[in-house]
Amino acid sequence: MTRRFDWVPLSADVLPLVVEVEKTAYSHPWTVGHFSDTMNAGHHTQVLLGEALPGDVGLPTLADGRVLIGYLVAMQILDEVHLLNITVAPALQRQGWGRVLLDGLALWARTQQAQWLWLEVRPSNAPALAAYRQRGFAEVGRRRDYYPLDNTRREDAIVMSLNLKVSA
Q1: CA distances (Å), 5 to each of 51, 66, 91, 97, 147, in order?
Q2: Residue 147 is among the residues annotated as catalytic for this protein
Protein backbone atom coordinates (compact mmCIF):
# COMPACT_ATOMS: atom_id res chain seq x y z
CA MET A 1 0.00 0.00 0.00
CA THR A 2 1.29 3.45 -0.91
CA ARG A 3 1.42 6.12 1.77
CA ARG A 4 0.97 9.77 0.77
CA PHE A 5 3.38 12.08 2.56
CA ASP A 6 4.35 15.74 2.93
CA TRP A 7 7.56 17.56 3.74
CA VAL A 8 7.17 20.23 6.43
CA PRO A 9 9.71 22.28 8.38
CA LEU A 10 10.25 21.17 11.97
CA SER A 11 8.00 23.31 14.16
CA ALA A 12 6.99 23.52 17.80
CA ASP A 13 3.82 21.48 17.23
CA VAL A 14 5.75 18.55 15.70
CA LEU A 15 8.76 18.78 18.04
CA PRO A 16 7.30 16.55 20.82
CA LEU A 17 6.74 13.74 18.31
CA VAL A 18 10.27 14.13 16.94
CA VAL A 19 11.72 13.89 20.45
CA GLU A 20 9.54 10.82 21.13
CA VAL A 21 10.88 9.08 18.01
CA GLU A 22 14.43 10.17 18.82
CA LYS A 23 14.19 8.46 22.23
CA THR A 24 12.99 5.20 20.66
CA ALA A 25 15.61 5.24 17.89
CA TYR A 26 18.85 6.00 19.76
CA SER A 27 20.69 5.11 22.93
CA HIS A 28 21.94 8.72 23.16
CA PRO A 29 19.08 10.76 21.68
CA TRP A 30 19.00 14.44 20.92
CA THR A 31 17.00 16.46 23.42
CA VAL A 32 14.35 19.14 22.92
CA GLY A 33 17.19 21.60 23.45
CA HIS A 34 19.26 20.15 20.63
CA PHE A 35 16.38 20.42 18.17
CA SER A 36 15.38 23.89 19.41
CA ASP A 37 18.96 25.08 19.01
CA THR A 38 19.08 23.88 15.40
CA MET A 39 15.77 25.55 14.62
CA ASN A 40 16.91 28.80 16.27
CA ALA A 41 20.20 28.67 14.36
CA GLY A 42 18.28 28.50 11.08
CA HIS A 43 19.53 25.05 10.09
CA HIS A 44 17.57 23.08 7.52
CA THR A 45 15.04 20.98 9.44
CA GLN A 46 12.51 18.83 7.62
CA VAL A 47 9.89 16.40 8.84
CA LEU A 48 8.24 13.73 6.73
CA LEU A 49 4.58 13.37 7.71
CA GLY A 50 2.37 10.71 6.18
CA GLU A 51 -1.22 9.62 6.08
CA ALA A 52 -2.18 7.00 8.63
CA LEU A 53 -2.79 3.58 7.08
CA PRO A 54 -4.75 0.58 8.31
CA GLY A 55 -2.49 -1.47 10.54
CA ASP A 56 -0.43 1.49 11.77
CA VAL A 57 0.12 0.80 15.44
CA GLY A 58 2.20 2.82 17.84
CA LEU A 59 3.29 5.49 15.39
CA PRO A 60 3.59 9.03 16.72
CA THR A 61 0.51 10.82 15.44
CA LEU A 62 -0.40 14.48 15.16
CA ALA A 63 -3.83 15.79 16.15
CA ASP A 64 -4.77 15.94 12.44
CA GLY A 65 -4.15 12.19 12.11
CA ARG A 66 -0.89 12.32 10.17
CA VAL A 67 1.95 10.10 11.38
CA LEU A 68 5.59 11.04 11.79
CA ILE A 69 7.63 9.03 9.29
CA GLY A 70 11.01 10.66 9.83
CA TYR A 71 13.03 13.85 9.98
CA LEU A 72 16.39 15.38 9.23
CA VAL A 73 18.54 18.26 10.37
CA ALA A 74 21.31 19.69 8.18
CA MET A 75 23.63 22.65 8.38
CA GLN A 76 24.91 24.56 5.36
CA ILE A 77 28.28 26.26 5.40
CA LEU A 78 29.18 27.94 2.12
CA ASP A 79 28.95 25.26 -0.60
CA GLU A 80 28.74 22.28 1.76
CA VAL A 81 25.84 20.73 3.66
CA HIS A 82 26.47 18.62 6.75
CA LEU A 83 23.78 16.14 7.76
CA LEU A 84 23.50 16.35 11.55
CA ASN A 85 20.57 14.01 12.19
CA ILE A 86 18.44 11.74 10.03
CA THR A 87 15.92 9.39 11.57
CA VAL A 88 13.06 7.18 10.44
CA ALA A 89 10.51 6.10 13.04
CA PRO A 90 11.63 2.58 14.09
CA ALA A 91 8.30 0.99 13.08
CA LEU A 92 8.79 2.32 9.52
CA GLN A 93 12.47 1.49 9.04
CA ARG A 94 13.62 -0.68 6.12
CA GLN A 95 10.74 0.53 3.96
CA GLY A 96 12.68 3.06 1.88
CA TRP A 97 11.89 6.16 3.92
CA GLY A 98 15.56 6.81 4.69
CA ARG A 99 16.24 7.00 0.95
CA VAL A 100 13.33 9.44 0.57
CA LEU A 101 14.84 11.63 3.29
CA LEU A 102 18.33 11.46 1.73
CA ASP A 103 17.05 12.23 -1.75
CA GLY A 104 15.04 15.16 -0.41
CA LEU A 105 18.11 16.50 1.37
CA ALA A 106 20.28 16.17 -1.74
CA LEU A 107 17.66 17.97 -3.82
CA TRP A 108 17.42 20.80 -1.28
CA ALA A 109 21.24 21.04 -1.05
CA ARG A 110 21.48 21.41 -4.83
CA THR A 111 18.92 24.23 -4.75
CA GLN A 112 21.24 25.95 -2.27
CA GLN A 113 24.15 25.57 -4.74
CA ALA A 114 25.92 23.15 -2.39
CA GLN A 115 28.61 21.03 -4.01
CA TRP A 116 29.15 18.52 -1.21
CA LEU A 117 27.01 16.66 1.29
CA TRP A 118 28.76 15.33 4.41
CA LEU A 119 27.74 12.99 7.23
CA GLU A 120 29.04 10.73 9.98
CA VAL A 121 27.75 7.23 10.64
CA ARG A 122 28.53 4.51 13.15
CA PRO A 123 30.52 1.58 11.67
CA SER A 124 28.08 -0.71 13.51
CA ASN A 125 25.07 0.78 11.64
CA ALA A 126 25.18 -1.54 8.62
CA PRO A 127 21.72 -0.59 7.25
CA ALA A 128 22.61 3.13 7.23
CA LEU A 129 26.02 2.47 5.68
CA ALA A 130 24.39 0.44 2.91
CA ALA A 131 21.80 3.16 2.26
CA TYR A 132 24.44 5.88 2.10
CA ARG A 133 26.64 3.86 -0.26
CA GLN A 134 23.62 3.08 -2.45
CA ARG A 135 22.99 6.82 -2.74
CA GLY A 136 26.58 7.46 -3.87
CA PHE A 137 28.25 8.48 -0.60
CA ALA A 138 31.91 7.50 -0.28
CA GLU A 139 33.91 6.92 2.89
CA VAL A 140 36.54 9.64 3.21
CA GLY A 141 37.78 9.27 6.79
CA ARG A 142 37.13 8.40 10.41
CA ARG A 143 36.59 10.36 13.58
CA ARG A 144 38.02 8.46 16.52
CA ASP A 145 35.76 7.94 19.55
CA TYR A 146 33.01 10.11 18.09
CA TYR A 147 29.89 8.33 19.36
CA PRO A 148 29.18 7.27 22.95
CA LEU A 149 28.46 3.57 23.45
CA ASP A 150 28.01 3.64 27.20
CA ASN A 151 29.50 5.45 30.20
CA THR A 152 33.06 4.35 29.43
CA ARG A 153 33.30 3.29 25.79
CA ARG A 154 32.99 5.16 22.52
CA GLU A 155 32.69 4.23 18.84
CA ASP A 156 34.40 5.78 15.83
CA ALA A 157 32.45 7.57 13.13
CA ILE A 158 32.87 6.91 9.44
CA VAL A 159 32.92 10.23 7.59
CA MET A 160 31.19 10.06 4.22
CA SER A 161 30.66 12.58 1.44
CA LEU A 162 28.62 12.92 -1.70
CA ASN A 163 29.80 15.12 -4.56
CA LEU A 164 26.54 16.79 -5.59
CA LYS A 165 27.95 18.06 -8.87
CA VAL A 166 28.92 14.55 -10.00
CA SER A 167 25.82 12.75 -8.66
CA ALA A 168 23.30 15.16 -10.20
Answers
A1: 6, 9, 16, 10, 32
A2: no
